[in-house]
Write a structure and sequence with these properties.
By secondary structure, this protein is mainly alpha-helical. The protein has helices at 15-34, 36-43, 56-59, 67-88, 90-107, 119-132, 148-165, 173-188, 233-252, 259-274; strands at residues 2-3, 137-140, 144-147. Strands 1-2-3 form a 3-stranded antiparallel beta sheet. The radius of gyration is 21 Å and the shape is globular.
Length: 275
């Protein structure tokens, strides 16, 4: 499974995606070394024991039943997480990730069986990807193109009917559904900032700017600047990335930048000083 370069920036493994991948891998190794039953008893989400083990609302996301359960969840995080973290910022990304996981746990309260796995959080991340880039092709098995919106819509329908039909097979379909619902409600809510809602519109190319200007101070008409000589591809790519980062600062503020984006701005600043 992979997506194409139609997303508005190149793929990069972002800070919180990297940390989550490592944390889930470490927890799986620990579960193998210590015996899965021990960790499941204390770290899984047990609906019947929420008062005595409330930490299960969070810790269950880092515990997986077997290797393939872990593998497919991490594949989803690896492909769909970085674009969202790069667009929203690390702080908002990890908050969204945990909220989707909590949504999965809350919906699972209706059944007594314990749940484990990051599936609810991953489903929420995939939903966020589809809402930002709905027409981005996702290649299943590397050959079958499916638009992101249809891919996530299919997952929602499967989770809904599986939950209603009581299909089990070791898969917590209610948790999947809870992650999707929690993610959608949070994106559409006013909890994120005074303006309300997370930015989910696809990014479109914009003219480059020399300074960041608040939206209310921008004017509609500006004299058209003469075209500059064509730059080499490497310089064009660097300037495109800088322009994207400036747009992000203008829309969301400096706190939304990832570590890589801050390093990029420092690098460009040093280049200008040396020139």
């Amino acid at each position: 499974m992979a997506y194409t370069e139609r997303t508005p920036f190149a793929f990069q493994l972002t800070p919180w995606v990297k940390r989550l991948l490592i944390a889930n891998a470490v927890m799986f190794v620990l579960s193998v070394l210590t015996g899965y039953g021990f960790l499941e008893r204390w770290l899984a989400f047990w609906p019947n024991h929420v008062l005595t083990r409330p930490w299960g609302f969070v810790t269950y996301m880092f515990l997986h039943g077997n290797f393939w359960h872990l593998f497919w969840n991490m594949v989803g995080l690896f492909f769909f997480g970085p674009p969202i973290e790069a667009k929203w910022g690390s702080r908002e990304f990890i908050k969204f990730y945990l909220i989707c996981g909590l949504g999965g746990a809350v919906l699972s309260l209706f059944f007594p069986a314990p749940i484990v796995g990051a599936s609810a959080a991953i489903y929420g991340v995939m939903l966020a990807f589809a809402m930002n880039w709905p027409d981005s092709p996702i290649y299943l098995w590397g050959i079958l193109p499916v638009k992101a919106k249809w891919f996530v819509g299919f997952l929602f329908v499967v989770s809904l009917f599986s939950a209603l039909g009581g299909a089990g097979g070791g898969i917590a379909h209610l948790a999947h559904l809870g992650g999707l619902v929690a993610g959608f409600l949070y994106i559409k809510s006013d909890f994120w900032k005074p303006g309300g809602g997370l930015p989910v519109r696809p990014t479109r190319p914009r003219p480059r700017r020399l300074a960041i200007v608040p939206r209310e101070e921008r004017t509609e008409s500006r004299p058209e600047r003469p075209r500059r000589p064509r730059r080499d591809p490497a310089e064009e790519q660097l300037l495109d990335e800088v322009d994207r980062v400036l747009d992000k600062i203008s829309a969301q503020g400096m706190d939304s930048l990832t570590e890589q984006e801050r390093s990029l701005l420092d690098q460009v600043s040093r280049m200008h000083r040396s020139n």
